[in-house]
């Protein structure tokens, strides 16, 4: 270890401190080397490096043996505390949901709240009655919310991959059309010509947001000009009931709105994926792993939603 190490003690490795503790305990370089499974020269080299770091001889000759200096004993007392804390950090604490008081922030939108939150909270209440869950609106801000630590988990339609984030596919559904039961399209179905002529309702949760199915419409050379745009799916069933409007959305919304409104297959093939995403800072935390597992289990347990193509 050079003089730079003396100026920067953080360059000292934990193994060297462990060696110092062992030599202090045994009062012998040879015995410490045997206990550590090292050569005596390697132990001596480590102690020489630490003498530079702490600017102290650490051990002095006393007859045929060695004796620690007062500074050495003081350092070892600190090492005991530090190494114990490090060992505690190195072994993940077991998470016990029955006694946990954690708070989780879940970011999602209307659809994900509607189909997942009842099941999530039923299980939380059963397994972890002291856990708190806060739900915020995701819109198209999920990545930013995770990166800035605003939320712990995002559940939303497919998000672009981003460094430092993890993701898991929860659902893959098809797009469908939702109409009033009084609308003739509810009985006969919707063709591409019907779709092109229809009066459309569009849910637009954020400025500049573009639904995924618009890419398929572009491929087909179709475009729609919605007569009504709303920021959320809330009250959609009441809006559609007495109108001829057509809403295009994931078929899974049938779990929420039928039988109040009709769900018929969309006249094009397009998938609606829902993913769960989280940041690296919570990836290995026991509490967060438990919460994410509940979300994934709830998604898997959902009954079939929507209609067959």
According to CATH, the homologous superfamily of the largest domain is Periplasmic binding protein-like II
Radius of gyration: 31 Å
Oligomer: single chain
What is the end-to-end distance? Answer: 70 Å
Biggest sheet, in brief?
9 strands, mixed
Q: How many β strands by DSSP?
A: 11
CATH structural fold name of the largest domain: D-Maltodextrin-Binding Protein, domain 2
Helix content: 40-55%
Beta content: 15-25%
Tell me what the CATH architecture of the largest domain is: 3-Layer(aba) Sandwich
Low-confidence stretches: 1-6
Number of helical stretches of at least 4 residues: 13
User: What is the CATH first-level class name of the largest domain?
Assistant: Alpha Beta
Key features of this structure:
alpha/beta, Arc Repressor Mutant, subunit A, D-Maltodextrin-Binding Protein, domain 2, 3 domains, nine-stranded mixed beta sheet, two-stranded antiparallel sheet, 13 helices, 11 strands, 42% helix, 21% strand, disordered N terminus, DNA-binding, transcription, YidZ_PBP2
Task: Characterize the structure shown.
The chain is of the alpha/beta class and 309 residues long. It folds into 3 domains: 3-90, Arc Repressor Mutant, subunit A (Orthogonal Bundle), CATH 1.10.10; 103-171 and 273-300, D-Maltodextrin-Binding Protein, domain 2; 172-272, D-Maltodextrin-Binding Protein, domain 2 (3-Layer(aba) Sandwich), CATH 3.40.190.10. The protein is 42% helix and 21% strand. β1 (59-62) and β2 (65-68) form a beta hairpin. α2 crosses α5 (70-90). 29% of the residues are buried. The model is unreliable at 1-6 (pLDDT under 50). Residues 12-69 form the HTH lysR-type domain. InterPro entries: LysR-type_TF, LysR_HTH_N, LysR_subst-bd, WH-like_DNA-bd_sf, WH_DNA-bd_sf, YidZ_PBP2.
């Amino acid at each position: 270890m050079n003089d730079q190490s003396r100026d920067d003690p953080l360059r000292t490795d934990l193994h060297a401190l462990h060696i110092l503790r062992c030599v202090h305990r045994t009062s012998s370089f040879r015995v410490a080397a045997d206990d550590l499974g090292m050569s005596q020269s390697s132990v001596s080299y480590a102690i020489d490096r630490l003498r530079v770091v702490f600017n102290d001889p650490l051990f002095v000759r006393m007859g045929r043996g060695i004796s620690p200096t007062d500074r050495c004993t003081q350092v070892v007392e600190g090492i005991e505390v530090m190494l114990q804390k490090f060992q505690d950090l190195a072994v993940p604490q077991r998470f016990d949901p029955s006694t946990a008081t954690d708070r989780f922030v879940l970011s999602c939108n209307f659809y994900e709240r509607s189909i997942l939150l009842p099941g999530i909270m039923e299980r939380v209440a059963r397994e972890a009655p002291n856990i708190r869950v806060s739900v915020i609106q995701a819109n198209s801000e999920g990545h930013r919310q995770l990166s800035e630590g605003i939320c712990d988990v995002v559940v939303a339609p497919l998000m672009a991959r981003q460094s430092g984030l993890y993701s898991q596919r929860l659902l893959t559904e098809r797009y469908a059309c939702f109409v009033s039961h009084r609308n003739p399209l509810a009985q006969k179905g919707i063709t591409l010509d019907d779709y092109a002529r229809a009066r459309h309702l569009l849910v637009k949760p954020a400025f500049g947001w573009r639904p995924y199915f618009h890419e398929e419409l572009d491929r087909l050379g179709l475009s729609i000009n919605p007569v009504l745009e709303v920021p959320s799916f809330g009250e959609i069933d009441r809006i559609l009931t007495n109108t001829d409007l057509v809403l295009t959305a994931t078929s899974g919304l049938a779990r929420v709105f039928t039988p109040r409104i009709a769900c018929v297959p969309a006249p094009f093939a397009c998938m609606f994926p829902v993913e769960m995403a989280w940041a690296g800072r919570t990836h290995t935390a026991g509490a967060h792993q438990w919460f994410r597992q509940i979300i994934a289990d709830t998604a898997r347990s959902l009954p079939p939603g929507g209609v067959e193509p």
